[in-house]
Amino acid sequence: MPGPARSSMRSDAEQNRARILEVARTALTESGDASMQSIAKRAGVGQGTLYRHFPTREALLLTVYRQDVQELVATAPALLAAHRPFDALRLWFDRLASYGRIKHGLADALQAATRAELAGEHYGPVIGALTLLLDACKRTGGMRPDVDADEVLELVGFLWRTDPRPDRETRAQHMLTLVIDGMRSRPDSGH
């Protein structure tokens, strides 16, 4: 009978880990200063359980960061399968904006971690997902052919650099609209 008990314990541990990550994502979006103790309490686990999964605050932050980037990258093909290319691009940008808010909340903590390593680790997959979306828009004839994923990612960098003001969401949506409109083909522009 050790097999079923071990499997049940493993399942409980996986559920605890998933709950900790979800609570941490929410808590860190609200405040980049969220403590390990407050995250454990909100997740309904003891501090020992939290530290067993994430021995340091940095380990927890890095796991949240990596998971968010992986989810962001994975959404590009699914969005294209369900939406027209420009709609998929906009929805992906909305997810990028959400990720940007989380990243903004983690900025100080990520500074303490290996920021350059993280950027290198995730830059390629993010550029790949963005290229997939941009290429689909170009195939419709509605996007300028000179739009480049690296440049677009730089353009939308405002998502994690803007001040956390009450109208931040409205401003971000407006700026994303400006970026998308700037990438559209114009019959009279030669693009």
Q: How would you summarize this macromolecular structure in one to three sentences?
A:
The protein is an all-alpha fold. It has 8 helices and no strands.
Tell me what you see in this structure.
By secondary structure, the protein is mainly alpha-helical. The chain has two domains: 1-55, Arc Repressor Mutant, subunit A; 56-191, Tetracycline Repressor, domain 2 (Orthogonal Bundle). The protein is built from eight helices and no strands. Helix 4 (57-82) packs parallel to helix 6 (115-139), helix 5 (85-112) packs antiparallel against helix 6 (115-139) and helix 5 crosses helix 8 (168-183). The radius of gyration is 20 Å and the shape is elongated. The mean pLDDT is 82.
Itemize the secondary structure elements and their pairings.
Blueprint: H1 2-30, H2 36-43, H3 47-53, H4 57-82, H5 85-112, H6 115-139, H7 149-155, H8 168-183
Helix pairs in contact: 1-2, 1-4, 1-5, 4-5, 4-6, 5-6, 5-8
Structure classification: mainly alpha
What is the CATH C level class of the largest domain, in words? Mainly Alpha
Q: Which fold name fills CATH's third level, the topology of the largest domain?
A: Tetracycline Repressor, domain 2
* SSE topology string: HHHHHHHH
Q: Counting H and I runs of at least 4 residues, what is the number of helices? A: 8
Q: From the coordinates shown, what is the CATH architecture of the largest domain?
A: Orthogonal Bundle
Q: Any idea what the shape is?
A: elongated
| Mean of pLDDT | 82
CATH superfamily of the largest domain: Tetracycline Repressor, domain 2
Number of self-contained structural domains? 2
Distance linking N and C termini: 69 Å
Instruction: Report helical residue fraction.
Output: over 70%
Strand content: under 5%
* Unreliable sequence segments: none
- Count of β-strands: 0
Characterize the biggest β-sheet. none
